[in-house]
Amino acid sequence: MSNQLDYKKLKEFISEKLKVSIDSIEITQFKGGFSNLTFQIKTPEKSWVLRRPPFGEKISKAHDMGREFSVLKALQNAGYQKIPKAILFEEDPEIFGAPFFVMEHIDGLILRNKTTELETFEPKDFHNLSKSAIDALLELHQLELQNSGLLALGKPKGYVERQVVGWSQRYFKAKTNELRAVEEAITWLNSNLPSNENVGFIHNDFKYDNMVLTRKTPFEVKAILDWEMATVGDPLMDLGTTLAYWAQQDDPDILKMFNLTHLPGNLTRQEVIDYYASKSGHDLSQMLFYYVFGLIKVGVIAQQIFKRFSQGHANDPRFGALIHVVEAAGRQATKSITTEKI
C-alpha cells in the first residue's frame, strides 16, 4: 500500500456527507501518536476529527475503525458524556486508503511532552490531574452495563486469560529481536493467572494524552479519546495498562516518553493503586500481575510498530527507537516480578 493519501476524494466525500463547500475544507494531520492516523477537517464554521488506520500490518482490534465508531455510538446512547460525538463511518477504502470515521472536534488541552501549556503547570496541578484522571477511569469502570446495552461490546468471562494468551501470541508474531526478559515475563503471566475476575467497561489505553482537559482548569477531564480497544472486561486489566504508562521519576527515561506522570506533583503508582482501591471496592492484592501484564502489553504494541517500521511500512524515525521500549518494558516487568514491587 502507498503511504500517500488522496485528499481530493476525501474532500468530495466530506462535502457531500457534511453539506459543506468543498472549497472551504482544510485537512491537516495531527502530529505525534504512534498508532492510528488522526486528521482535522476544518471549515470556517466548524471542525471535525477523522481517524483511519496506519499503513502496513494491522494490530488486531486496535485499528478497527468500525468498532471504535460503534463504541462511541454505544457510549453516546448510554448517556456517557466524556466522549466526542460520532458523526459517520465509511468502510470504502477507495475514499481515503482505508476505512475511517469522523467525530466532532472537542476544543481543549491535550497534555503531551511538547505542549506549550506545560510551562504553567505546577506540582499541585499535576497532583489534581492525577486524581481527576483516576476518577475518570473509575467512572468508566462503574458504568451500568446491562440496561445501557454496553455489555454487548465484550465477553467478560475468561477475559483475563484471553488477553494474556492473545498478547503473548502477538509478541511472538511480531518478534524481531531476542529479548529474554520479555519472554520470561510472558511465561510468568501465563503461569500466574488470577483466580477471580471483575467485570466493567474498560478503555484499555487510558493515559494523559488520550484525555482532553478544559483550558481554564487543566486538571478537569473534558473528554476521553482513542476508544478502539475499549470493551467489557476486568477493570484491573485496564488499571494495569494505565500503571504501565504511569512512569515515575526513577523509571528508565525511555519509559517516560508516553506519559507526563513522572513530573513533580503526580501520584506515584502505589498512590494510584491506593486511591483506586479506596473508591472501587475491588481487591487489589494481585495488582502485581495486572501491572506486569500492562508492561508486556505496552511492550508488544511497541514491538508491533517497530516491526512495521523495519518492514518499511512506516517512516517516522521515532518508530525505530521503539525496540528499546520493548526491552525496557521487559526489564521493568521482570524487576517487578523479582522484587514484588510496582
UniProtKB/TrEMBL annotation:
Pfam families: APH. CDD domains: ACAD10_11_N-like. Residues 26-258 form the Aminoglycoside phosphotransferase domain. PANTHER family: HAD FAMILY PHOSPHATASE (PTHR47829:SF1), HYDROLASE, PUTATIVE (AFU_ORTHOLOGUE AFUA_1G12880)-RELATED (PTHR47829). This is Phosphotransferase family protein.
